[in-house]
Specification:
alpha/beta, Rossmann fold, six-stranded mixed β-sheet, five-stranded parallel β-sheet, 22 helices, 13 strands, 47% helix, 11% strand, binds 6-O-phosphono-beta-D-fructofuranose
Length: 546
């Protein structure tokens, strides 16, 4: 059904009027006026605490944003997603990654069928397989236990399992080294193969479609490498597949008994909860993998039932929408103050940008008068502080930041953890407060006056820069699951407000098609086509270098 254009809705217009005043607000003053600001603008659920008080907004802003969410039918769409309606309109598919993390007893309906049984049947197989690899019962073709797992996949078939395996390294099996090959660049494969022994390596070919060019090329290379050192019958002990495409797996030569299926109602970037999470189950064990799912499920239940005003994903989505739409923030920086979350920004890039990087509405109308998904980027603290935080503090763009931290470390270097948290909290304070010219003058007191005045503009910080802080007690499988689900639902909320289909990704197709043509030209299998002069010139240089 065609929605009214976002900007024509009553609540959007009220927000626009409200924003004309809010743009003038100084957060320093908002904090000074309201000693309860932190208590009022923070909330918690599923083991995560969210402080959103360091944003340029007040209670009225939140009321208006909640009204907008109601007027845009965000709750209705959420309920439709959980009910298995085909809300991915361009692919005519349901969006049911939440069913992957629901307990066995909870029914999820798709086309009148309960799918929970199918989900748990695959989970049971993951358990049996991962238990046997981890215990050493699963042997390679020469009778040795598996020591290395190489996951071959890209996008959602790589970023999720890789990010989670790194984040949960404290829980990892000591015998199993995890490797991830995603890039079609042969250096990626070369680096992985140079570290493993074919007798003790398990390859997982992970691809929802089993047609993705990079993954297929990498899978064929791995297979050829393996078969140079082992007989054909050995493949069954060393190659398994995760996919929705049984036929393609058979054609590749993998026994369907070694295939872990999932379904078209799981988007690639939402698939770490499915069999795509097999590397996680192998690395940390099925028990911790289940805890990851349970943490996500706790966030699902919160998202499904809590009123908008106390609902973490709703709040995170609405505040981000406010910053994007009314304070002109074109990007969001993700700053996990936890080394083990160092792939989390890259994971969120796909989750958010592939979902909401859209320029037409769900009905196909071109969006002309508002902005959609922001650029997502970032790195772990404190490293980012010594690289790009300069721009965040004093550059001409305002970039909201999400700080993420665990209150307790999983190591014994407690002085390090105090230093880490101090930096995290200090940065959010500095972004909010900034430093006035008078404060700079006080700091420089004693120096010659003309020298002070020369330095004042350089040492002044505008402040008033928004941030959220998300805290958990420890980084555990459960809190990580909740954190990922929090961002999944935040993306959902924003997609619903912007009226875009967050569940397709047609934008990646054009480059893929052109790459196929150019690859044939580079290999001399096709005559040079009519490209522009730049592309022709680049192809010619590459051919000359061969
Ligand atoms: O090209 C984009 C994309 O389709 C992503 O959405 C997906 O996660 C990735 O490619 C990998 O796809 P597959 O799992 O089918 O190989």
């Amino acid at each position: 059904m065609r929605q009214p254009i976002l900007t024509s809705t009553t609540s959007y217009q009220s927000l626009r009027n409200h924003a004309s005043q809010a743009r003038e607000w100084q957060m320093r003053e908002l904090f000074a006026q309201d000693p309860q600001r932190f208590e009022r603008l923070s909330t918690e659920a599923a083991g995560l605490f969210l402080d959103y008080s360091k944003n340029r907004l007040d209670g009225r802003t939140l009321e208006l944003l909640a009204e907008l969410a109601r007027e845009r039918g965000v709750e209705r769409l959420r309920d439709a997603m959980f009910a298995g309606e085909k809300i991915n309109l361009t692919e005519n598919r349901a969006v049911l990654h939440t069913a992957l993390r629901a307990p066995r007893t909870r029914a999820f309906e798709l086309d009148g069928q309960n799918i929970t049984g199918d989900v748990h049947a695959v989970l049971d197989r993951i358990k049996t397989f991962s238990d046997s690899v981890r215990s050493g019962a699963w042997l390679g073709h020469t009778g040795k236990p598996i020591t290395d797992v190489v996951n071959i996949g890209i996008g959602g078939s790589d970023l999720g399992p890789k990010m989670v395996c790194l984040a949960l390294r404290q829980f990892a099996h000591p015998r199993l080294a995890m490797h991830f090959v995603s890039n079609v660049d042969g250096h990626d494969m070369d680096a992985a193969l140079s570290r493993v022994n074919p007798e003790t390596t398990l390859f997982i070919i992970a691809s929802k479609t089993f047609t993705t060019a990079e993954t297929m090329m990498n899978a064929n290379t791995a297979r050829a490498w393996f078969l140079q050192q082992a007989p054909e019958e050995a493949l069954a002990k060393h190659f398994v597949a995760v996919s929705t495409n049984v036929e393609a797996i058979k054609t590749f030569g993998i026994d369907p008994a070694n295939m872990f299926p999932f379904w078209d109602w799981v988007g690639g970037r939402y698939s770490v909860w499915s069999a795509i999470g097999l590397p996680v189950a192998l690395s940390v064990g099925f028990g911790y993998f289940s805890d990851l799912l349970a943490g996500a499920h706790a966030m699902d239940e919160h998202f499904r039932t809590a009123p908008i005003e106390q609902n973490l994903p709703m709040i995170l989505g609405l505040v981000g929408f406010w910053n994007r739409e009314f304070l002109d923030c074109a990007s969001v920086s993700i700053a996990p103050y936890h080394q083990d979350l160092n792939r989390f920004p890259a994971y969120l890039q796909q989750l958010d940008m592939e979902s909401n990087g859209k320029r037409v509405t769900r009905a196909g109308d071109t969006i002309t008068d508002y902005d959609t998904g922001p650029v997502i980027w970032g790195d772990v603290g404190t490293n980012g502080q010594h690289a790009y935080f300069q721009l965040l503090h004093q550059g001409t763009d305002v970039t909201p930041i999400d700080f993420i931290a665990a209150l307790r470390p999983a190591h014994e270097f407690h002085n390090h953890h105090a230093a880490l948290l101090a930096n995290c909290f200090a940065q959010s304070e500095a972004f909010m407060k900034g430093k006035t010219a008078d404060e700079v003058r006080q700091d420089l007191a004693g120096q010659p006056l003309d020298e002070i005045e020369r330095l004042v503009p350089h040492k002044t910080f505008p402040g008033n820069r928004p941030s959220n802080t998300i805290l958990m007690e420890y980084l555990t499988p459960a809190t990580l699951g909740a954190l990922i689900a929090l961002y999944e639902h935040k993306v959902f909320v924003q997609g619903a407000l912007w009226d875009v289909n967050s569940y397709d990704q047609w934008g990646v197709e054009l480059g893929k098609v052109l790459a196929k043509k150019i690859e044939a030209e580079l290999n001399g299998e096709a005559q040079p086509a009519q490209h522009d002069s730049s592309t022709n010139g680049l192809i010619a240089r590459a051919k000359a270098a061969v």
